[in-house]
Specification:
The protein has one domain: Alpha-Beta Plaits, CATH 3.30.70. The chain has 4 helices and 6 strands, in the order αββααββαββ. Strands 1-6 form a two-stranded antiparallel sheet. A two-stranded antiparallel sheet has the order 2-5. Strand 3 and strand 4 form a beta hairpin. The protein is globular. The chain starts with 10 loop residues before the first helix and ends with a strand. The protein binds iron/sulfur cluster (2 copies). One iron/sulfur cluster binds next to helix 2.
Length: about 100
């Protein structure tokens, strides 16, 4: 297929084509105690592409359901507060465009 034949789409459109079979068991757990006591920058809230981490009054809130399984949060967390694994038995995100 030539490059000209490929249809250009925005990243948000591509992400909207993904589907999730959400695992009932969270595949990521966060040590909120470390977040609250040790972490001043809370970089996960800036770098998670799915917006799973949000700031709260005394720390962060985390929601695993829309996770894209990129592993960024585990790598960037300076306090090893993120325990990250794959969802069980093929659950989680399914990409439609690679
Ligand atoms: S970067 Fe790590 S320690 Fe800091 S708020 Fe995020 S998960 Fe918690
Ligand atoms: S693995 Fe990626 S998408 Fe999932 S919570 Fe971490 S940074 Fe966000």
């Amino acid at each position: 297929m030539s490059v000209q034949a490929l249809k250009k789409i925005k990243i948000t459109e591509a992400l909207n084509t993904n589907i999730w079979d959400v695992d009932s068991r969270p595949h990521i757990t966060v040590d909120y105690e470390k977040c609250r006591k040790l972490c001043d920058k809370k970089i996960c809230t800036l770098l998670c592409p799915a917006g799973c981490y949000t700031l709260s009054d005394d720390g962060i809130l985390f929601s695993y359901e829309g996770c894209l399984e990129c592993g960024t949060c585990r790598i960037v967390c300076p306090h090893e507060a993120v325990k990250w694994d794959y969802p069980l038995s093929g659950r989680g995100v399914q990409y439609r465009f690679g």
